[in-house]
Amino acid sequence: MDKPMQQVWNEAQQRSNEAYMRQRRVTIDPITRLEGHGKIDIFLDAAGEVERAYFQVPELRGFEAFARGRPAEDMPQITSRICGVCPLAHHMAATRALDDLYGVDPPPAAKKIRELDYSLFMVEDHALHFYFLGGPDFVVGPTAPKEQRNVLGVLAKVGLEVGKRVIETRKELRDLETYLGGKTIHPVLGLPGGVAKGIAPDDLPQFQQVADRAVGFAKFTLDVFRNVVLGNPDYVALITSEAYTHKTYYMGLVDANNRVNFYDGMLRVVNAEGKEYAKFRAQDYLDYVAEHVEPWSYVKFCYLKPVGWKGFVEGQDSGIYAVAPLARLNAADGMATPLAQEAYEEFFKTLGGKPVHHTLANHWARVIELLYAAERLQELANDPEITSRDLRVLPTKTPAKGIGVVEAPRGTLFHHYETDEQGLITKANLIVATQNNAARIAMSVDRAAKSLIHKGQVDDGLLNMVEMAFRAYDPCHGCATHSLPGDMPLVASIYDSEGRLVRQIRR
Amino acid sequence: MPTQREILIVAVGNDLLGDDAVGVVAGLALKAEGLPVEISVRSGLALLDHIEGVGKVLLIDSQTTGGAPGEIEEFVLTPSVVRSPSPHYLGYGEALAVGRAVGLDLPDEIRVLAVERTGATNIGAGLSDSVRAALPALIHRARDIVRGWSRHEVAA
What we know:
The complex is a heterodimer of chains A (507) and B (156). Chain A has 16 helices and 15 strands. Chain A has 507 residues and is α+β, with helices and mostly antiparallel strands. In chain A, the strands form 5 sheets. A 4-stranded mixed β-sheet of chain A has the order 2-1-14-15, sandwiched between helices. In chain A, strands 7-6-5-10 form a 4-stranded mixed β-sheet. In chain A, a hairpin with a 5-residue loop joins β14 and β15 (501-506). Helix content of chain B is 34%, strand content 20%. Chain B has 4 helices and 5 strands, in the order βαβαββαβα. The two termini of chain B are 15 Å apart. The interface between A and B is large, with 54 and 55 residues.
């Protein structure tokens, strides 16, 4: 975007921000925010066209103050408690930050056990999310009646026995996670320099069998996606439509061969043309990632520091980037396992080469990653070293600063701790996946609303099409509490050009 | 003493997030009395992990229905229409509906004790005074429900 255009955009944005601020007392109620509501606020102009749409997610608060003064080695347990959705992702990121803090390199078997545990978790999470998140939009269909657009509608189409398989697969995986993480409320596997528990040789066959079934299940799921989604030209047209497309940077963890990795490696960023823009160690993240604050949201929007914040705009000059499955596939050169690699090639071939900018392709990317996680689980369960008893290197270094990163199901997760020489926390910072994605999600919701809502016409179907834009990212509301009723209500409010609330739709 | 498979208390909440901890605090107290309790910090579909194969379940959690903080509501859980797009934000009724639909062996009764909480959910905030004051009544009622079930089991 050239300079004058940029200015026009930013001025328009400023105006809508001001309009928003006039409404803020009414539209952002701090209590509902904390209860975990998703909120979409759509402002129409005099002609009934969308001037700006905002999507709000709750934000984690108070963590740093809570962490200060506590022993760093408590962080894998404490951080796994802040989120009821991704406890293991936080546990692993914190454990890796402790390795860095104490300057210890865990023995190979310990790394493999951690990665095996993490693979169990990724299979579990990705499998569920395909059937719950992508399924209603693509298996049931985006314009199906809303009472069918849910996981039960998906199961009615693919067969209830598939549903049972999803639930049973999940339970098997969870049982093995419990084997490694302990029967306590929170995982207790990771320690600085290693793991607390190994795998007994007698128990290994169970891991191998579950891994085999997981690969079978992932292949089956990919077939469902191929048949149902790719077999329908309307769906492919929807995935590739302008309403759901943004040309941004992408970030993801890669191994030494630039292949997707969830647990270890370097962070790689590619630009909107798919060329490598940066590759850096987790420890250097502050040179690359910065946060921007907007008056209408409590979430801090991450952007690439060297490129800079240019507003909610796409393209090479704007520092906005994405994380999560699609971003990981874009940021890598391939997958490290054979079946996932085949699926990776098919993905880019079908969608016109790298990078893919279509947000809805996240659902497909998620299934490819599911297959990778299952294959990686199988590799690790059959690795001769996995039953080794050499599980820990004891830390001896005086701690000062530790940074760890993993790929959570929803994207890159940073943990950063600083301590005194006793190992008590003096500073703590977390950047969660949804924060990395926040700017692109905001653009996606705005774009979808502008493309789909015209002349003031907003119905349930249109709202669902707008929701689809952010559902694909699977944004985390993990800091929302577990309180009843337990579901995550979504409230969409539509305002006319005078700022009057004209319609409110709740789900 | 009822066995885990016949009767189970599932205490749900996050002990770091203000009043969201109430279920966990009550659950730990009941566990200390020797009652069968599982504590869960997971949300959504994870409920099914705890209740599958159990005869009767008592769920203890916080809730936000707009009532007075500390108020205790008791009701029997029934399956509800599934609306949530995410497995992690399924309500209990939705999770139950999914579990039933795929034919899991689920309890014939799920009773819920829910305490109305305040909105304060800063990490490490602790329980509010009004919710803390409700704890004795909550624990008492939970004990009564489970004892009632146990007597029934023995009589049968």
